[in-house]
Amino acid sequence: MTGLLNWGRRRFVLAATVSIAWAWTPTATVGAAVPDFAFLQISDIHVSPRPAGARNVAEPDLSAEGLAWFAEQAVRPQVLTAQGITTPPPAFVLATGDICEYGAIAGTWDVVERYFAAVKLPIYVTAGNHDYTWAGIMPIIAKAYGYDHYSFDRFGCHFVCIVTATPQEPLPCIDQRTVTWLAKDLKPVSAHTPVIVFCHHPLSTTEFPQPQDPVRLQEALSGHNVVLLLMGHGHGVRHEKLGPIDCVMGGSTYGPNTGYGIVAVTAGVLRMAYRFKDAAKPMQTLVEKPLAAPRLPSVEIVDPSPQTLIAGPAIDVCARAPGGGELRLTAALNNNHKQAVPLVPGESVFRARLAVGDLLPGAHVVHLQATAGALGLDRLAPFVYAPSDSPVGECRVQLDSGSKARPLAVGDEVIVAGTDGRIVAVRAGDPTGRPRIVFDGESSILHEPALADGVLYFGASDRMVHAVSLAGKRLWKTPIRGCALGTPVVEGGTLYVGDLEGGVTAIDRQGGEVRWSKPLAVFSIEMPLRFHGGVLYFGAWDGHVYAVDAATGVLKWKAIGPAGQNNPKQKNRYYSPADCPGIVVGDRVFFTDRAYQLGSYSLDGKYLGDIAEDVAAIGPTQDGKGFYARGLAKGLTRYDGAGKQVWTEPVPMGRFPCPPTETGGVVYACSNVGVLRAHDGATGRPLWEYQATPGTYVMAPVAVDDQGRAIVIGMDGTLVRVEPVKPR
Question: What pLDDT is attached to residue 4?
Answer without folding.
Answer: 32
